[in-house]
Amino acid sequence: xxxxxxxxxxxxxxxxxxxRFTGANIYWLGLSNVATTxxxxxxxxxxxxxxxxxxxxxxxxxxxxxxxxxxxxxxxxLGISVGDPxxxxxxxxxxxxxxxxxxxxxxxxxxxxxxxxxxxxLIIPFVDNYYYNNVxxxxxxxxxGITSGAQxxxxxxxxxxxxxxxxxxxxxxDYIALIMNRVNQFNGLAYKNDPTILxxxxxxxxxxxxxxxxxxxxxxxxxxxxxxxxxxxxxxxxNPGHGTFTAAQLDIANIDIxxxxxxxxxxxxxxxxxxxxxxxxxSFPNATPAKAYIIGEYDWTFASAASATATIDTTTAPVGYxxxxxxxxxxxxxxxxxxxxxxxxxxxxxxSSPTVLAGGTTYVFSFFAKATGKxxxxxxxxxxxxxxxxxxxxxxxxxxxxxxxxxxxxxxxxPQTDHSAAIAFNVGDVVDTTWIAGVSLFxxxxxxxxxxNPNFVxxxxxTNAPWVLHLPPLAxxxxxxxxxxxxxxxxxxxxxxxxxxxxxxxxxYGFCIQTDGYxxxxxxxxxxxxxxxxDQAERMQIIRAHGYKLQGFASTPAATMPxxxxxxxxxxxxxxxxxxxxxxxxxxxxxxxxxxxxxxFPLPYPNPVQPPTWSVIGTYTDFQTPVKDSxxxxxxxxxxxxxxxxxxQYSVALPSNLAHTRV
Length: 663
Known about the structure:
Blueprint: E1 6-8, E2 11-14, E3 17-18, E4 21-25, E5 36-37, H1 55-67, E6 72-74, H2 92-96, H3 105-118, E7 121-125, H4 137-143, H5 155-158, H6 161-164, H7 166-180, E8 197-201, H8 210-223, E9 228-230, H9 247-250, E10 257-262, H10 267-278, E11 292-299, E12 307-313, E13 324-331, E14 340-344, E15 362-371, E16 379-386, E17 393-400, E18 406-413, E19 421-426, E20 433-443, E21 468-470, H11 480-489, E22 496-500, E23 512-513, H12 534-550, E24 567-570, E25 575-579, E26 587-594, E27 614-620, E28 627-629, E29 634-641, E30 647-650
Parallel strand pairs: 4-6, 4-22, 6-7, 7-8, 8-9, 10-11, 11-22
Antiparallel strand pairs: 1-2, 2-3, 5-23, 12-13, 13-20, 14-19, 14-21, 15-18, 15-20, 16-17, 16-19, 24-25, 25-28, 26-27, 26-29, 29-30
Helix pairs in contact: 1-3, 7-8, 11-12
């Protein structure tokens, strides 16, 4: 049995030696929401879009991580499992009565067991800030009638009760105890006694008060003195002039690790974070004593970078206006908010005094906008929103843009007074040109426009207030090698980083597909149509080399020899050929043979009776199955090739369908 991870100051330790790692988020190990495959199959899910991944898929994902040199996996669904019929706790009663859904533990138990067998440590969060597939902290507030239904415009404000309501906090504590005390059916260990787990994480991208984090961390430690506890607080800091962590957050005694997430990666902020955690920051609050620091998620694709310009256009404006703001996006980002035209209201009104949105007041926000009309279905998200955590929107417009000027508006009520709200036009996820004019914000029944410079008269280059063009930070990492080497490898106060996110092969053929733009399909890269470029495969090998370097290898080991695929042939006109994906397979060589007298099938190869003559049909990736072939009286076999060009064993040769069932 391996030892528990501990920490001394800013360093994680394993058996007394510094433990540093590269890792991945494999969020779906307990419950998956990946309902489509690269072969076009739609998987059967429950009403919330969830299903249990097969043991085959779990094994594929974890073995892929190991082959990539990863020693840590962060998995949300191993600890976040509430509110769904397939979850550990479908109802509040399952917590209160200590009667969990035992079937849900099958995938969780197996994942923890197999990770331990592979030498992989696990980061397990207990709750999600969001409500994806109707699972998150809102589940707990819904159970107690504080909130209801799905997340709406003011979900962050509504759900603050998760951190303050004593009954909800007690429910959450009971849920934590239920998870930690679970005894794994495969290794006989209670989770709280299993050294496979590196750390418990208080939540995923939550924004609680430090008092809540203190309460939860103290409770976890009261049940489990073996494991570290990581603070799941996330503030989305993109300003290197601001410290990510507050003094109150860093003073929590039973928090051992703090973390951050980066979309895109940002070297200076990561460096600042690590210095705060290590207690050596010259500019921001320091941890005393020091804590370890982990990058819990990062964008490995570098697809978040975007470029855009904003200018005054005096030739294009709606009737009654002389000019507009012209936004030209040359390179799009994964998320629209990566490029936005932004006005903080506290930069002043027309009378130069700050604008305060008064609690309980109704406001009307409106604007004119148009686009080129060259992008079908073009929309632009616009909001009046908070500029501090939890960054909720008060009023939102999803403007459907055409090549004609249209007026858009929204009426909303501000639930509580806000001294630092802002207007945000989010344009960054589409390469297109957008024009905006005549922006207004009125308190209901009033005639004074609360916005400064609503017609863009005073702006020249949109780099100064009131209207600013927000782009991804210019000081982000130059590229993946820059981030991994110059920031992570060379900074001993950064223990490791987990990319988002690693996906498995589907257990029939192809890959399980997640369309968030950050998913990794090792070692092929992203699918054509989802930003596939040659360097996707290269980036994966950079990450692999980085992982082995942090493990102390002088050079990257040769790739593991691939195993034999499991072949399926459905005879017909044409024959349809598929095979199970193999961990680490960069390509597959498919071969055909024709025999005049065929021996009994299935036919193992080599066969002592009348060996067939084989010819290569072609070389394929996992994204190119199924393969169709019209040759009659044919038999087929396939073998996988790894990234070093080495071939593994052949599959069994087949002439007809061989059923492949989910385990």
